[in-house]
Design brief:
Rossmann fold; globular; alpha/beta; seven-stranded mixed beta sheet; single chain; 2 domains; Quinone Oxidoreductase, Chain A, domain 1; about 325 residues; about 25% strand
Amino acid sequence: MKAMLIKNYGENAPFEASEVDQPEVKPGHVLVKIAASSVNTVDTMIRKMGKDLPLSPDAPALLGMDFAGTVEAVGEGVQNYSVGDEVYGCAGGLADLPGTLAEYIVADADLIAHKAKNLSMKEAAALPLVAITAYEGLVRAGIQAGQKVLVHGGSGGVGHVALQLAKHFGADVYSTGGGDKQLALIEKLGATGINYKTESVEQYVAKHTGGAGFDVVFDSVGGANLTNSFEAAALNGQVATTVSMCELDLTPAHFKGLSLHVVFMLIPMLHNHKRSEHGDILRKLTEIAESGALTPILDETNFSLEEAGEAYARLESGKAMGKVVIEN
């Protein structure tokens, strides 16, 4: 089969079109013909950092985690899938799991679900990593109807899904963005937009919560921005983040009695730990999407499998709005 391989890691490491053996289905897995795959920040980090990241596969590497496609063969012991089923998931591209920048993938049946009937293959491929991340963070933060929820980075990959899910759960949702296009998308998706460049945390907390703070803060920016999340959170509030590889003074969190939830959704893939929970979440996401409450936003660009390098560059440019997707 055709695959795009990285022979050597590094800044702008080239993807090389290669012919590799088509993988064979094995027990507990399904063989999927991939229709589309999406690019995530972690994919670009692996390409750039290689073995400096403990989750990177050995080179030559077949990257890509998210996919949507059609089942072509079903392994022994797999109950819920048949040949011809349209599925989606996040199931490769790290450690010893071959990725999605290819024509086929053999995916653990626990890491996939049937795709939503009202989503295209490209839309379905945009969801798994970011939507599982958003869902896990909000659920671990104990989101409830009627709460005030702040999403940092609501026009980004994880953020634009988190604010839709928070709305689905019945919350009153607010979200930060840094420009007119970002804020327009946030408002279109049903949240109240906050321009973090023109409003201080103190100002928007006063404006939207009467100074009490937000019950849940979902921080898809993380790092140094976590201090803003602590400032924005209510007393005994909940903060979920996807980026916490940093040194930080937790004193503000202490004096407000905050709970911090770190979401690292790659753990089931990396450690073969509770993988079926990802399948369960994906099935719930399919229901939410089919109810009309979750629509992934796709960047305006189009890329073929051979243009994987350009797709990665598009995400890294910071100019993408929504998810960058490759048509396999």
